[in-house]
Prior knowledge:
Elements lengths: L7 E9 L4 E10 L2 E11 L4 E12 L5 E10 L2
Antiparallel strand pairs: 1-2, 2-3, 3-4, 4-5
Amino acid sequence: DVLDGSIYAGVGVSDTLDDNWFGHAYLVFGDEFTEAQVGANYKINRELDANIYARFFMADHGNDHNRLGIGLTYKF
């Protein structure tokens, strides 16, 4: 596992962009990797958000893992 015995830290920001959009960004870095993500949630209604993000995982040793994602969040 990448995190076994590793020290890591991060910083993130999030904010309301307008009445329906909420954005976020974060950066996590450690002994053997750096990970960054930027994304936004769109409020469809009171219980449902649509999500889109880009995540970048940069390993010091091995392969990088970058991805784009979309999803839905249901709030109970």
